[in-house]
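Bumping with the actual sequence this time:
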Amino acid sequence: MWLRRTVVGAMAVPLAFLVLRDAPVRLVAPERTTAKPAAPAGAPRPAIVTRAQWHADEDLVKEHAVYTGSVKAVFVHHTGHPNGYDCADAPAMLRAMEEAHVRGEGWDDIGYNFVVDRCGTIYEGRAGGVGRSVRGAHATGFNAHSVGIAALGTFGPGVPVPKALIEGIAKVGAWKLSRSIDPQGHVRMVSTNDDSLYDRGEEVYLHAVSGHRDTYRTDCPGEALYGQLPAVRAEMARLREPKPGS
């Protein structure tokens, strides 16, 4: 992924964005679509560090949030930061990323709906997406009716993926994904942009929890994290299991 350096105080932080790169994409046959006949119990809202708490610069935001309705799919990303960061530095890293996304990429706000650090802490990304579903700038052609969750770090081949990170992604994904969608199943979506892997208007069938590479020419979320998506799906399903006595 392209890296850009933004200095935060005395610390230079490399940033990664949604970048073209050839990578295999797993296409899913239509007959494998799934939807449970009865909506399962939803997962509770996890603890989230709000934009106010990580001191997002609201003056950078160009436009108000665009709401898109229920979330049909979760797209998992990685940000491209070095993995050895102290989790206490995550807020500063998010502030630098917000500035780069808006001033560098020309987006209205930070692209991801949520960011999870290696300690499992969940941060609100794009404004307005906690209480409702907001269209992000994370999956070209598939930003509507989806939620983008970015892992703070870089997860190429052989890189260990912290259990806390997997659990954090699963918590926010299980909470935001529509109750009618099986996190271990598949969903029908329609591309809205020819710049994705699919022509505008093309109907595709994806994992309900997919990697960015499944709809765009990129290695995001990295080979190691992509390989952990089955674990993310399984944890999301577990979090939605009815509790005894419920």
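The tokens above came from a reply further down the thread. The CA atoms of residues 98 and 110 lie 5 Å apart.
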